[in-house]
Design brief:
With 834 residues, this protein is α+β, with helices and mostly antiparallel strands. The protein has 30 helices and 21 strands. Strands 2, 3, 6, 7, 12, 16 and 17 form a 7-stranded mixed beta sheet that branches. Strand 20 and strand 21 form a beta hairpin. Helix 22 runs antiparallel to helix 26. The longest helix is centred in the first third of the chain and has 43 residues. The radius of gyration is 37 Å and the shape is globular. The N and C termini lie far apart (113 Å). The relative contact order is 0.10.
Length: 834
């Protein structure tokens, strides 16, 4: 019995042991399997910290109308697992990219086009880095070769083929198809140091693309759709030169500066206009505005979950001083004005074709026909300024361009069309062009003369037609001529008898202002030009403002600077003319001179203009003898010293040039924006303001964080009666039909002719083709209490009267608004517009 019981216990014990062993084995297997699975899952998931950029701020007009803003869009991105870098892996990813590109293009999306190896029309391959500076090109190429891990010496075509092979691009693919894939692979390779950051392969794709890619996300390994934004310019080409556009960073020096501020190379920055100058305020890319996301992602780069999120801060809004309705009125008026002038010029040419065909100044120009050779009106600029603040209420540059062409990168075809247009639509002519002003300069001479005491309000000067005070027989024999009043050839000058300064301004009497300029001397004319801010920048908050100049010896030729670094091209032109002359002298002597010697001698002769002497005949002979071994006797016998002296006289200041500077002739060149603040100062009592295009800065919560206050650049100390005399003269130009400049006839029967003042300016450009002269008109309104100054400039616009149409239209718009009770003044920033 006991033995049976014992055997039973042994059997039970053995069964228990077997059960525990089986359970242990099963548990062990289960633990190992789950451990392996959890390990895989752990390895597939990674926590990453992503930088989040803020949206770019808006640009608004003074009433709050958006002129530039960010709009939500969708981009397609691609993330490659950096651990998968075999040839098979690259072929796999290329197949995914091929399918992704197909889906994007089938739904009217576009793939990025950034590959830096391009194929020309002739089939030759080369590099294109979007820059032209040789040093920048060299630096970009070196960096590109290094980052792309390609040979430092291979030709572009060899690299192109090698990259096709590296990324297993199908052989049947042509260049255009391969280029799309290589653009993506290039972006992947260039950002390989931070492989966890996706690269954008298509921007602003339609919702159809979003839907189809999301639907196939399980097979499009590494491909995802993300929310993004694009810049929108709702007014297209209106105020384009003011607003500006954005683009990629292409300058090497700027790139490093932006990186130091937290930008990436792929970020968009302001390139021109307010987008550029106020980049620091508008951007959401700088480090202080960046946010941060911590996410868990799998090996495909897809976000599994968000751990934390610190949102980015949007950039500030910029409110401009311009009123959009006034801006559109000004641009439309200017465009019609330029086109009308051009049509009138063509009619004038065809009516007097023989005269223009025989014009000596056109004979050496290139072109098949005379019209091809002539420079006629095709562009213009206009500015409306608040005379009490310097705020620009409207500013036009014609022709303009559509800012939206640059969103996402402008096409080569569109950029070539804009950059080769003879009318230069990309060029802001209101601040970056300068032209000979003509008679609009006479208020400088007049105010300076009255204030300096060289003329009084009651002094009378009789117009004698020719101002020959400094003209002698030798000057006439050398081809010189006395400056004359504009009415000398027609006899109109005879009515300029014993005129006061107000009458002289009304009639634009050149002779009167020659005399005042002579009494002032050139130094005081330049000084007064500076007081009015004509030869300094206005400090408007836009890039590429240039500075005007008023003629003097330094402008003609500055001996302290190389010929190639002068203020004008005239020294280079004179040098080239001298080279031709010297070559001719050699031919007369039967001597062939080396080109380098001719240029060296011509340079030495130009430098004689810096001696401050009217005649340098002896010095010329010395240079010819030393450099070219031409004896003094031969140079004098042939009159070569006199010929050279006459040519050099273009670079030597004299009293006659002082006279003509007093009426705004070449080499005086002024910018429209500087003229605007000059006219404002004439009618506001002498306050020269900095020009402003920005009113205020507003943060993303609507708070005004910075207001741009009016800033007086200079206060002109002059008698009040002197300013009043200028205003009176300008009023009579427009409304007094007793004047004989014909300007008043352009305002006859105009309802506001007695409420404004204005002045024409015909800037002489050509001696015998008056059609090429510059057209200026400046004005202010209302007369009793001036509020706005208007400047219109049409290069090669024939004459000052031809710039009146734009002025009349914009002043009528402004005064109509006042009559109708519309508040035309600048409202306070962030105020409610009813």
């Amino acid at each position: 019995m006991l033995k049976k019981l014992k055997n039973r216990f042994i059997i039970i014990f053995m069964l228990i042991v077997v059960i525990f062993v089986a359970a242990g084995v099963q548990l062990s297997n289960l633990t190992m399997a789950q451990g392996e699975m959890l390990t895989v899952q752990s390895e597939d998931r990674t926590v990453r910290t992503l930088t989040v950029k803020g949206s770019r701020g808006q640009i608004l007009d003074i009433t709050g109308i958006p002129l530039a803003y960010d709009q939500s869009t969708y981009d397609v991105e691609f993330t490659r697992d950096p651990s998968k870098n075999t040839t098979t892996d690259k072929a796999y990813y290329t197949s995914i990219l091929i399918e992704t590109i197909r889906l994007i293009e089938e739904n009217e999306g576009e793939i990025i086009d950034t590959f830096n190896i391009v194929r020309g029309e002739d089939g030759a391959f080369g590099f294109d880095f979007g820059v032209t500076d040789p040093e920048a090109v060299k630096s970009r190429e070196e960096n590109w070769r290094s980052n792309m891990s390609v040979s430092k010496t291979s030709e572009p075509d060899v690299i192109y083929r090698d990259l096709r092979n590296r990324y297993r691009i199908p052989e049947e693919y042509g260049y255009e198809e391969a280029r799309k894939l290589l653009s993506v692979w290039q972006e992947i390779q260039l950002s390989s140091y931070r492989a966890y950051i996706p690269v954008t392969i298509a921007q602003d794709v339609p919702m159809e693309t979003v839907a189809v890619i999301e639907a196939r996300s399980d097979v499009l390994d590494g491909v995802s759709v993300v929310e993004s934004s694009t810049r929108v310019y709702p007014k297209d080409d209106v105020a384009a030169h003011i607003i500006g556009y954005t683009g990629k960073i292409v300058n090497e020096e700027s790139l490093q500066e932006y990186k130091d501020k937290g930008y990436d190379q792929s970020d968009t920055v302001g390139i021109t206009g307010v987008e550029n100058t106020w980049e620091a305020y508008l951007t959401g890319n700088s480090v202080e505005r960046q946010g941060e996301r911590k996410v868990e992602v799998n090996s495909r780069g897809k976000v599994i979950q968000e751990i934390s999120n610190v949102p980015a801060t949007a950039g500030n809004d910029i409110m401009l001083t311009i009123d959009m309705e006034m801006q559109m009125t000004l641009e439309e008026a200017l465009g019609k004005n330029v086109q009308t002038v051009h049509e009138k010029q063509l009619n004038e040419y065809y009516e007097h074709q023989e005269k223009y065909d025989e014009a000596s100044s056109l004979q050496n120009r290139t072109g098949e026909t005379t019209l091809d050779k002539m420079n006629l009106a095709q562009s213009g600029a206009a500015v409306v300024m608040d005379v009490h603040t310097g705020d620009v209420m409207a500013m036009a540059s014609y022709p303009s361009f559509d800012l939206n062409l640059f969103v996402g990168g402008i096409s080569n075809e569109d950029y070539e069309m804009l950059s080769t247009d003879e009318a230069s639509p990309l060029f802001n002519k209101a601040i970056s062009s300068k032209g000979t002003p003509g008679s609009i300069f006479k208020m400088v001479t007049g105010l300076a003369g009255l204030t300096e005491g060289v003329v009084t309000l009651d002094d009378e000067i009789n117009d004698e037609g020719l101002y020959d005070k400094y003209i002698d027989e030798s000057y006439i024999n050398a081809g010189g001529r006395a400056p004359a009043c504009w009415g000398y050839t027609t006899g109109a000058y005879l009515s300029h008898t014993n005129q006061t300064i107000v009458e002289a301004l009304r009639d634009s009497c050149n002779y009167f202002f020659y005399e005042v300029a002579d009494r002032l001397t050139i130094d005081r004319i330049v000084e007064w030009s500076d007081r009015f801010g004509l030869i300094t920048k206005t400090n408007i908050e836009l890039p590429a403002e240039v500075t005007g100049q008023v003629g003097n010896q330094e402008v003609l030729y500055n001996p302290d600077k190389d010929i190639d670094n002068q203020k004008t091209y005239k020294p280079q032109i004179v040098r080239n003319a001298l080279v031709t002359m010297l070559k001719g002298y050699g031919e007369e002597r039967g001597v062939e001179y080396d080109q380098a010697l001719l240029e060296e001698t011509a340079t030495a002769l130009v430098e004689l203009a810096g001696l401050g002497k009217q005649s340098v005949g002896a010095e010329i002979c010395a240079v010819l003898s030393e450099k070219m071994e031409i004896p003094e006797t031969i140079a004098k016998r042939n009159g070569w010293n006199n010929e050279i002296n006459q040519t050099l006289s273009e670079l030597i200041w004299n009293n006659t040039k002082t006279l003509t500077t007093g009426i705004g002739t070449e080499p005086t060149l002024l910018t429209p924006i500087a003229v605007a603040r000059y006219v404002a100062a004439v009618v506001n009592g002498g306050y020269v303001y900095d020009a402003h295009i920005v009113d205020s800065v507003i943060d993303s919560n609507g708070n005004v964080v910075e207001e741009i206050e009016p800033e007086v650049w200079h206060k002109i100390d002059a008698p009040p009666e002197a300013f009043e005399a200028m205003k009176e003269g300008l009023r009579d130009v427009v409304s007094n039909e007793d004047g004989n400049t014909a300007t008043a006839s352009w305002f006859k029967d105009w309802k506001y002719k007695d409420e404004i003042g204005g002045k024409t300016g015909t800037g002489k450009v050509s001696d015998d083709v008056e059609l090429e002269n510059n057209a200026w008109f400046v004005a202010f309104a209302p007369y009793d209490e001036p509020e706005i100054a208007v400047v219109v400039y049409i290069p090669n616009g024939w004459g000052g009267n031809h710039a009146i149409d734009t002025t009349r239209d914009i002043i009528e718009y402004y005064l109509d608004g006042k009559e109708q009770g519309t508040d035309m003044s600048v409202p306070a920033a962030n105020s409610v517009i009813s």
